[in-house]
Specification:
The chain is an alpha+beta fold and about 240 residues long. The protein contains six helices and five strands. α1 crosses α5, α4 runs antiparallel to α5 and α4 packs parallel to α6. Keywords: Membrane, Transmembrane, Transmembrane helix.
Length: about 240
């Protein structure tokens, strides 16, 4: 009974690894690298005078800040706390927006656009704060520099989680290979746990990982796979030798 339960566990882990390799919330950065710049300028500043002609809602006296959502108000208030530039522009930088697919988020779930919530389209919007002063919110364009982080993450998922799932499944279904060992199943469970917990570990801790940690994970995983294949090859040759004898 324990052996059957063990084999069933290996199949379940293999299936979960396949699902994890396609899920956007596994083995990913906690925050979306495509976030856009957010800045505001008071009506008395030069920046306000420069951008006001491009702004929406300027003829309506501005959008009352009280009508914004909690996250939109938060971004606006945080921007007000920033030191102004020489033109009077107060930049929040790129608000940290959580990556899609995550179950937990300690920052912005979507980009805090004051009009089109969730979008990061370039825009200029007039906001009226609680004192009656007007501010222009400038939504800038993201950097043109390509971010290879998501590509590296997805590539790592495909070359680590998927192949290991196939490895576990092959050892379970093939009549020529050994049954999944306790180590191979436990490593699969550990790999699954790491993939799922990875963004939350980075989100809620101050852990600083070296740049080579993902290649290292791939090397270790493929080391386990190749070791298992080598052992299976020895087992196959041993069975063939017994048959010929």
């Amino acid at each position: 009974m324990k052996f059957r339960t063990f084999l069933s566990t290996s199949v379940i882990i293999a299936l979960l690894l396949v699902g994890a390799s396609f899920h956007p919330g596994t083995l990913t950065k906690p925050y979306d690298g495509d976030s856009t710049y957010y800045a505001i300028a008071h009506e008395s500043s030069n920046a306000y005078k420069v951008y006001i002609d491009y702004a929406s809602h300027r003829g309506e006296g501005g959008i009352p800040v009280e009508t914004l959502s909690e996250s939109q108000q938060r971004a606006f208030e945080e921007a007000k706390q920033q030191e102004p530039s020489s033109s009077g522009l107060r930049s929040l930088g790129k608000p940290p927006v959580c990556s899609p697919g995550l179950l937990l988020c300690d920052e912005y779930e979507t980009f805090p656009h004051p009009v089109n919530k969730g979008t990061n389209d370039q825009d200029y919007v007039v906001i009226e704060d609680s004192t009656g002063d007007e501010f222009i919110v400038k939504i800038g364009q993201a950097d043109a520099i390509a971010d290879l982080g998501p590509i590296v993450m997805n590539f790592t998922k495909w070359v680590v989680l998927g192949p290991y799932a196939l490895f576990l499944g092959w050892r379970k279904l093939s009549t020529w290979t050994s049954e999944p060992t306790a180590f191979s199943v436990r490593y699969g469970a550990t790999l699954l746990t790491v993939a799922v917990a990875y963004p939350y570990i980075l989100m809620f801790t101050e852990l600083s990982l070296p740049s080579w940690h993902l290649p290292f994970l791939a090397i270790v995983t493929w080391g386990v796979i190749l070791d298992g294949i080598w052992r299976d090859r020895k087992n196959i040759l041993s069975k063939l030798g017994q048959i010929t004898d």
